[in-house]
Amino acid sequence: MAFGKGHHLHLVDGSAFIFRAYHALPPLTRKSDGMPIGAVSGFVNMIWKMIEDNKGPDAPTHAAVVFDKGSHTFRNDLYDAYKANRDEMPEDLRPQIPLTREATRAFNLACLEQEGFEADDIIATLACRAREAGGRCTIISSDKDLMQLVGGGVEMFDAMKNTRIDDEGVRAKFGVGPDRVVDVQALAGDSTDNVPGAPGIGIKTAATLINEFGSLDELLERAHEVPQPKRRQTLIEKADQIRLSKQLVQLDCDMALDYDLDSLEVREPVTQELLDFLTQMEFRTMTKRVSDALGIEAPVIRDQTDDGAAPREEAEQVAFPESYTWVKDTDALKDWIARAHARGYVAIDTETTSLNEMQALLVGVSLCIEPGEACYIPLGHKENAEADLFATDALSDGQIPFDEAMGLLKPLFEDPSVLKILQNAKYDCKVLARLGVQVAPVDDTMLMSYAMNGGLHGHGMDTLSERYLGHSPIPIKELIGTGKSQVTFDKVEIAKAVNYAAEDADVTLRLWHLFKPQLHRSHVTTVYETLERPLIPVLARMEMAGVKVDRNVLSRMSGAFEQKMAGLEDQIRELAGEDFKVSSPKQLGEILFDKLGLPGGKKTKTGAYQTGADILEDLATEHELPGLVLDWRQVSKLKSTYTDALQDHIDPETGRVHTSYSIAGANTGRLASTEPNLQNIPIRTEEGRRIREAFVAPEGRTLVALDYSQIELRILAHIAGIGELKQAFKDGQDIHALTASEMFNVPLDQMTPEIRRQAKAINFGVIYGISGFGLARNLRIPRDEAQGFIDRYFERFPGIRDYMDETVKFAKEHGFVQTLFGRRINTPEINAKGPGAGFAKRAAINAPIQGTAADVIRRAMIRMEDAIADLPATMLLQVHDELLFEVDQGAEDDLVKAAREVMEGASLPAVDLSVPLEVDAGQGATWAEAH
DNA sequence: GTACTCACG
DNA sequence: GACGTACGTGAGTACG
Question: What does the pLDDT read at residue A256?
Fold first, then answer.
């Protein structure tokens, strides 16, 4: 039967429900995976209540829930500022939107939305059709924009206040009947939707005017008759704006819809579908309520969860237990593994013999299923632990045979349906990967903290535990000792190891429960999911691959350096007239300034003379000795830090050097390379650069290096919107020469290297948060001259100064700055007083630029593995703006092509830079040649 | 453990 | 008006 007299249509303003539910409820999360579901929970409750309340004689015969879709509607075409003042949707709400659609369908209610239209227009069209058909319509909403629809069988119902709004209700609100609501709104405007209206006229005045003149058209036509001069002037001057406002508030009652009223007939919910949805959301209370109403038994939701419970982090903390479980046999282990499978997540931690993942042997594994409930599975503890003298290789009792235990653990660790939660996951993943176990999927509490709290504090387990759990874990030193008497973990008595190791897993799980919902609220879920988490396996593989280093090349260089140093030391002693340690800044300072009486002895804050390279360079004009010390220092540095130390890092098994990247080390998002640091291998001086000749490709392979050209300056040009710089990058011009030309009014064809050098220093200075002092020191020119350069630069590129001012302002207001990809860098010192303020300011200016560049190369690295999967190539190293690969001879060009494409497009699709990213490539048998 | 110096982007 | 400053790292050495 077609919709008509006697039928009653209910239209629910679904989008309004969602926002109301979101703001009314605390940020609840689904227990199993931390998914935010507060708004979904509230939404479901509201829908359920509505259904229950509307049973009886006046029950709806037809119903639908209507949603907004798309942010751009025809109203934006009329007026681009429409709803422009709306805040971005909160990050923890966004993923819930699709779930509200699912919820609607689960209730077997029609779920209506149409691209480019607001829910209001769909509601208007349907309400009008219902009225025309002679039926009734109730709009469940309190949105005043919908009040224009009331009348002729159409009413509204405010679900929160539980009141009906009819003709009378509209008059009470607007002072006019529903047919004139639009006129009043057009005059009064609406600040929440950014509808301008007539300035100075609110609802009260608007209603008076409309009632007096009859309609808006009439009023505007006879505006000159309005007695109040100010009001009259406004109406005459702003007539166009008022007419536009009317178009904006006028709902479209004649939308082309893909469905008719008849298709909205009320259907009973399909019990199974509804309960499936509710259990999937882990809404225990609602599941029970619905089951009771339907007279069936409620399905069991694993892991008791109450959707009305307090948010996780406010829940009472379970105390840390005195002791944990020692898993001694396979039955006990199987039981723990089964519990982890049932739970769907498990916190794990490994104990090993070394901090170096490449050499570390697995000694034990701990698991934690819920706070306070953790176990340790010892696997490699040695007998006679404490008595070194009698230590044997025999394993002590109470341990499952290694292979048997790993055979049971491996399926759990590799199960895609069980989330593994770790602190600094890369470490454990590498140790386990060497045993043939590929741990996935993984969450990392260290990286969660880094994404949220970068810049505030470190992200080690002890720091996090003390700060966020108020609990100091057992220090490792209590087990293995310190210094000379330190032992490896396999020598630790199992009974002691259990409580230490299991506690770490317990702490990790508790941190995860705390952090997971916070990620959404801190708006860094995307950063964590796209820039942190996926990097773990990529870096793990790079580190395990390592880079081949030729020991012979290094040791030859070491010998040469040693001789050179000895020669320099002789000369230095001669000039000083006495023997002293050249490597001691303290002794050197005394020789230079006290004994030889050289000028300009500046003291450090500890009272010692400064003997840095810049000071010695100045002194080199006065005396021969400082120059010799500089030479000595350079050689000494090369020998001790590179040619000697690097040899110690060659892995005896692989013959390669395996660095470790810390993902959460640098505040800006950059990686940091340690043990050894391969991101500071010399290149600037000819002698230092030769160290790179020791980094070689193995037989049949080639090293290929690709690096971003001027990436930070390009990002600055984009962020600050400097048209000239952007154009120069697009045209492939020499950016420093162009800057020089603009600043000093020198045509490009008359550019001298000296002027270009100065411009280059300024460009870099800008990235660092330029100061007259810093530039003066760098260029070795007087301060006022440097300041003059800076003034001229800002005059020429005012956008840069604007960027700096805005960034500092943002930091002061919010306590953090952001990269283009949303990475947050906290700036806790930004409002400090004293000299620290300057530091924090410059760091805040630099962070978005350096950080965005770091994000770009992270994105490239994450995509790189797939992009080169078909090539015989391996990604080995990252040096901030450079990636080093090893590839079979013959495939070099294919690699360059594929890798370049990934790197140049790495910002897309998230960020479409207005400058091109360019990548330079080189190749050769050694890193020196490849660069 | 801290200070200083110096290698890199 | 004086003061003190380029941004981000890791590591080796001296010294208390």
Answer: 85
Q: Helix H segments across A110-228?
A: 119-132, 167-174, 181-188, 203-213, 216-221
Nearest protein residue, CA measured to C1' of B5: A612
pTM score:
0.69
Strand C-contacting residues in A 752-781, CB cut-off 7 angstroms: 761-762, 764-765, 768-775, 777-778
A326, A472: one domain: yes
pLDDT digits (tens, 9 = 90+) for A875-911: 999 999 999 999 999 999 999 999 999 999 999 999 9
A240, A264, A288 - which closes a domain: A264
Residue A610's nearest nucleotide, by CA–C1', is: B4
In terms of domains, do A231 and A101 share one?
yes
Spatial distance from the CA of A851 to the C1' of B5 (Å): 27
For β-strands A8-13 and A62-66, DSSP reports them as parallel
Q: For helices A835-867 and A798-814, what crossing angle results, to 10°?
A: 100
**Nearest nt to the A843 alpha carbon by C1':** C7
Domains in chain A, number: 2
Q: Which domain holds residue A92?
A: 8-264
Structure tokens at A634: 């350079």
The CATH number of whichever domain residue A203 belongs to comes to 3.40.50.1010
Average pLDDT across chain A, whole number: 90
Asked whether residue A683, judged by its CB, lies under 7 Å from any atom of the DNA or RNA strand C, the reply is: no
Q: Is the CB of A827 under 7 A from strand C?
A: no
- A533 torsion bin: left (phi>0), alpha (psi -120 to 50), beta (else): alpha
Query: Which residues from the 613-652 window of protein chain A have CB within 7 angstroms of nucleic acid chain C?
Result: 640-641, 645
Separation of alpha carbons A572 and A579, rounded Å: 9
Q: Confirm whether any atom of chain C, the nucleic acid strand, is less than 7 Å from CB of A604.
A: no
- Binned at pLDDT 50, 70 and 90, residue A270 comes out as confident
Q: What is the pLDDT of residues A527-556, one digit of tens each?
A: 999 999 999 999 999 999 999 999 999 999
Residue A498: CATH number of its domain: 3.30.420.10
Contact A814, A806 (CB under 8 A): no
A43 sits in which H/E element = helix A38-53
Picking from A487, A522, A557, the residue at the C-terminal end of a domain is A522
State percent of chain A over pLDDT 90.
Answer: 60
The reply to whether A888 falls in a domain is: no
